[in-house]
Amino acid sequence: MEQSFDAKSLLATLTELPGVYRMIDSADTVLYVGKAKNLKKRVASYFRDRHPSPRIALMVAQIARVDTTVTRSEAEALLLENNLIKSLSPRYNILFRDDKSYPYIVLTHDRYPRLGFFRGTTDRRADYFGPFPSVLAVRESIHLLQKMFRLRTCENGVFNNRSRPCLLYQIKRCSAPCVGLVEAEPYAADVDMASLFLQGRQQDVIGRLSTAMDQAAERLAFEEAALCRDQIQSLRQVQDRQYVDSDKGGDVDIVAAVEEQGLLCVNLAMVRGGRHLGDRPQFPVNAADCSASEALSAFLAQHYLAHPIPLQILVNRPSADGELADWLSEAAGRPVKVAEPRLTMHRVWVEMAEQNARLAITARRSMLSRQGLRLEALCQTLALEVDDDKEARIECFDISHTQGDATVAACVVFQGSGMRKSDYRRFNIRDIQPGDDYAAIRQAVMRRYDKLLTGAAPVPTLILIDGGSGQVSAALSALAELGLAQLPIVGVAKGEARKPGLETLIFADGRDPLQLPPEHPALHLIQEVRDEAHRFAVSGHRARRGKAVRTSRLEEIAGIGPKRRKALISRFGGLQGISDAGIDQLTAVPGISRELAEKIYAALH
Q1: Residue 131, preceding bond cis, omega within 30 degrees?
Q2: Cβ atoms within 10 A of the Cβ of 140, count?
Q3: What are phi and psi of 585, to 5 degrees?
Q4: Which residues make beta-bridge pairs with 463?
């Protein structure tokens, strides 16, 4: 094999310390990023006569130089590798685009702790249970805990200002501590049992409830005994449904890599406190010609630097990186076991994860086939030209405002097989006449495609505008000013009564408007992208308008600066809570005198 540089000279200069290496081609593009306990041995493995796969041989043939970075430890090398992969997106690295944080269940440390959904950075001001693989798993668990232990779920701003029980009390999902219908001690006992349940100690909870039921029966407190009996029955039902429940509590992740029907899927299943919580399948990028073992190694390295590392990780096949358990152990600061299953229950878990991965592959193939047909129909209908080595890229704009106030423009992107959310953008429209949608579209298009002139952004195959001929003309004038008038633009004008299926396509090049049949696959793709643009624009507008509403009226009150405004919002949860508060409640906030409280009350009523 012919190489563009002298591999022997390179290897003679390398150290045997841990670090990260980058394979770079003649165009100064990073081809691959890897980590090594021993840089010299690892890099030398690429320059042997035989390579493990044609993919690696093709990469090595393009190498012009190799850059290395020595690190102080293996964990630091793992972290640096992951950061470089995310920032550089090398062509030959398997990439998993899973930037979302996982949800948790939270129990606060208030006098009457709140049970709730949480996503973000944890701290010591509450107890967190999870992570859970999906929002649905969290919602189901919270609903179950409400039914069994009747803990409050309302925020403090609502809780501190209730004067009567809410609907949750009426349907027996809350014990109404907000109005004193339950004492702190029995409520704390319910919190303890909910915590034990979330830790997987269901038998301990059943034991406590059985004791409480017997004691209540002895006191002839039959209503209390019946409540304990119902809680026990609910727990028994949960255990019956959790047919993969472990005899031992604990946190285990099951990772199964499956290659089938030309697709590669890595499925993550989570067991927390001995309870199986569900799955999350993921499909890697740059995985052509990669083995399932390579995908498994890439997922473990990338995923567990951003998410908690459990004590044990079960896998369905050996990892391509035999030292991965050592890397993860050093990153976690404790031993981490990565192994194939041996126990019968563990085999059941892994088989379930594999089966769910296969189901995800089948569903994805169906989706890709459907999207491919839609995209092909769209290109044929609009006579769009797409190079064989490129994916079609559709960008769609929409405007959202309330009578001209807080105008927001949104741009969403469809590329390849689905929406590319990392490329979405919002624009706060400024310096226009309120309600002027044409000017708003023009400004958004100008700001979006100004980067095309410097080559800093990809060129779209098609630009969709949610609107009629006026919006299309405004967008075309912006592109013409940028020298990009050649880009295809199509407006999507709503039909009669805004009924889906009656949309009319408006062309910027003077062609007659086109109304596709409601069942046309090209129209279905246009509707999907247009609806996503509308959703993204509306959510941005509501956030901008909500921020203005929360702060503007307080800012108009003399004597209310940023600190006092923050204290008020923190205490009452927002402007509505402040408005509902009485003068005495307002004076309880630090920094609010009675005179200022009267001024606030008068301004908001």
Answers
A1: yes
A2: 14
A3: -65, -35
A4: 395, 489
Are the beta carbons of 343 and 247 closer than 8 angstroms? no
β-bridge pairing 425-428 and 504-507? unpaired
Six-digit token string for 344: 């019968």
What are the structure tokens assigned to 143, written together?
Answer: 């609903």
Q: Residue 285 gets which letter from DSSP? A: B
Q: How many helices (H) and strands (E) does the chain have?
A: 20, 18
Instruction: Identify which of 489, 494, 525, 527 has the alpha carbon closest to the alpha carbon of residue 508.
Output: 489
Higher pLDDT, residue 234 or 323: 323
- Identity (one letter) of the amino acid at 564? R
Show the tokens assigned to 298: 């890439």
The pLDDT tens digits of the residues spanning 320-336 come to 776 788 888 887 888 88
pLDDT, tens only, 175-187:
999 998 988 888 9
Chain Cα centroid distance, residue 457 = 24
Give the Cα separation of 537 and 539 in Å (integer): 6
Element (H, E) at 398: strand 393-402
- Burial of residue 126, with CB atoms counted within 10 A of its CB: 0-12 exposed, 13-18 middle, 19 or more buried: middle
Output the six-digit token pair for 2: 């012919």
Core vs surface per residue 154-176: b (16+ CB within 10 A) or e? bebbbbbbeeeebebbeeebbbb
Q: How far apart are CA 348 and CA 345, in angstroms?
A: 5
Alpha carbon dihedral 537, 539, 544, 550, in 10-degree steps, equals 160
DSSP code per residue over 249-265? ---EEEEEEEEETTEEE
What is the DSSP-derived secondary structure letter of residue 275?
Answer: E
Three-class SS string for 586-599? HHCCCCCCHHHHHH
Q: Which contiguous run of DSSP H or E holds residue 24?
A: strand 19-24
Contact criterion met (CB below 8 Å) for 573 and 156: yes
| Global pTM value | 0.63
Residue type, 123: D
- C-alpha radius of gyration, the chain, whole number: 30
Distance, in Å, from the CA atom of 104 to the CA atom of 277, rounded to the nearest integer, reads 12
How many residues does the structure list for the chain? 605
Read off the pLDDT of residues 449-468 as tens digits, 9 standing for 90 and up. Answer: 988 877 777 889 999 999 99
The span from the CA of 439 to the CA of 475, in Å, is: 9
pLDDT over 80 (residue 498): no
| Backbone angle region of 289, left / alpha / beta, with phi > 0 → left and psi within -120 to 50 → alpha | left
Closest listed residue to residue 529, CA positions, set 383, 404, 374: 374
Rounded distance between C-alpha atoms, residue 274 and residue 473, angstroms: 60
In this structure, are residues 53 and 289 in contact, taking their beta carbons and an 8 Å threshold? Answer: yes
Dump strand ranges (E) for 55-179.
65-70, 104-108, 115-118, 126-129
Do 313 and 252 contact (CB within 8 A), yes or no? yes
Give φ, ψ of 215 to 5 degrees. Answer: -65, -40
